[in-house]
Amino acid sequence: MHSTHEVTNQPQPLVDYNLFDSNQALRDALKFNAPSLDTAELSALGRKLGSADMQAHARLANVNPPQLQSHDRFGRRVDRVEFHPSYHALMEAAVGAGLHAGTHGHTLRAAGFMLFTELEPSILCPISMTYAVMPALRGNAAIFKDLAPRLTSRAYDPSLRLWSNKSGLTMGMGMTEKQGGSDVRANTTLAVAEGQDDWGQRFRITGHKWFFSAPMCDAFLVLAQAPTGLSCFFLPRVLPDGSLNAIQIQRLKDKLGNKANASSEVEFHSATAWLVGDEGRGVPQILEMGTMTRLDCALGTSGLMRQALSIALDHCSQREAFGKRLIDQPLMRNVLADLALESEAATALAIRLARAFDGAGDEHERVMARVLTPIAKFWICKRGSHFAQEAMECLGGNGYVEEGGEGIMARIYREMPLNSIWEGAGNIMALDLMRALRKADVAAALAHELAPARGAHPAFDRMLAALPVRIEQLSGEIEARRLAQDVALAVQAALLHQGAPASVFNAFCDSRLAGNWGHAFGTLAAATDFDAIIARAMPR
């Protein structure tokens, strides 16, 4: 009897492959930005993250989301979040790779962060915040001295204990409130001075946070109104005497994606906290943290793009329709090549931004970090959702299904909007770029950054000539998004000219800068070198 369930013409899942070794765009971006970087650790990490075991942990952590335990069975408040064991396995891997610390350089850490995002992005929220907290935490030298060794330790310790009894720590943050959102100066949470101790000025905090990221972390940086204005505070979960601080978790957010991560709403009932930095200077203090998490937003979306592209390419290289493989169909080749261009451009810009963080002692790099942070956060993250939808469409109905290995694509699609919204949405980034470009040294540094590609493509030269006039004549906010887009495209083109083959650079300029492109992916010109672009992007 003929079987009705013989499976044919279905691809094998993309599993047990090396995420780093197969990512030529990332490897070339590292070669350009950090030519002496030893990538052996990245190759080992890429092999681990591409394994079937780690992919299973990523799936389980998402289908078994965190659960809030506000009280124990006797009615006592415990305010704990319970996670599936796979969540802890992923956290252990991320901390073990040093992605929470960046102690071996921002560029190396950025590449690892991108690779991990391909596997599972949502657990990286506490990883990112722990990494980003270090500059801001220096505003309280005593706390920094005590906690820094454990915040950079590669030991993952999820237990709820006093910091001094733990091998490793993680940190989160609480900035926004119901009535203000991004406008944190509208915060109403109050801080009342209580006295001095070994950690400096101690306060009692009363109020709420509408988004309190990763409530299971060991401590948080929060904003509250002190007598002289909005200030930054260090608020631990466990106090020096071993008792729990007065942080009450009201509920966990039910988010579109980001399911393995716990985001919460909390109230502070005279919680104990210590001042970080100068009183009344809370926004500048905590924005040091925000700058680094914005880097991670750009890195995260770039990693998600790469994973979506890899799945689409792998699927299309195996699936047949109308007599030949999907990857050999002309229209599909156009779509895949277009996605590959977008992914490589995002990777190039994100890694360039990480390099600027490594060059903090160099004036040009300092200025480029200031201007590249908002444009990378704005443009890369803004492109993510459209990218994921098109990559999903390459798989047809299989891409829309949640279960099994192919369900990774649906998880990517639900995750994509987050990085665009978190840590300053599009308008905030465009306005931040405007503020940066009003300084003469920023415009000059940008011109220097773009100069190596001068003369390489007519469309690039036209944009290069027009940008200084547009920057000089920018008088209001209404065109700030358009300028952020065009600056991002110009920088991406200049980077691709220096770090990618001519086939990639020319196709990028023809489409993104010269306008030989439509309003959807898959509208590249017929003269595009599709073969070279697709071959370069293949995951295996």
Task: Map the helices and strands.
Blueprint: H1 24-33, H2 40-49, H3 52-63, E1 67-71, E2 77-82, H4 85-96, H5 106-119, H6 124-137, H7 141-151, E3 171-174, E4 190-197, E5 200-213, E6 219-226, E7 229-236, E8 247-252, E9 263-276, H8 282-318, E10 320-321, E11 324-325, H9 330-358, H10 363-394, H11 397-400, H12 408-421, H13 426-437, H14 440-450, H15 458-473, H16 480-499, H17 502-513, H18 530-537
Parallel strand pairs: 3-6
Antiparallel strand pairs: 1-2, 3-5, 4-5, 5-9, 6-7, 7-9, 8-9, 10-11
Q: How would you explain this protein's 3D organization?
A:
With 540 residues, the chain is α+β, with helices and mostly antiparallel strands. It folds into 3 domains: 37-151, no CATH class; 163-280, Butyryl-CoA Dehydrogenase, subunit A, domain 2 (Beta Barrel), CATH 2.40.110.20; 285-537, Butyryl-CoA Dehydrogenase, subunit A, domain 3, CATH 1.20.140. The chain is built from 18 helices and 11 strands. The protein has helices spanning 24-33, 40-49, 52-63, 85-96, 106-119, 124-137, 141-151, 282-318, 330-358, 363-394, 397-400, 408-421, 426-437, 440-450, 458-473, 480-499, 502-513, 530-537, and strands at residues 67-71, 77-82, 171-174, 190-197, 200-213, 219-226, 229-236, 247-252, 263-276, 320-321, 324-325. The strands form 3 sheets. Strands 3-5-9-7-6 form a 5-stranded mixed barrel. Strand 6 and strand 7 form a beta hairpin. It is globular. The model has no long low-confidence stretch (mean pLDDT 94).
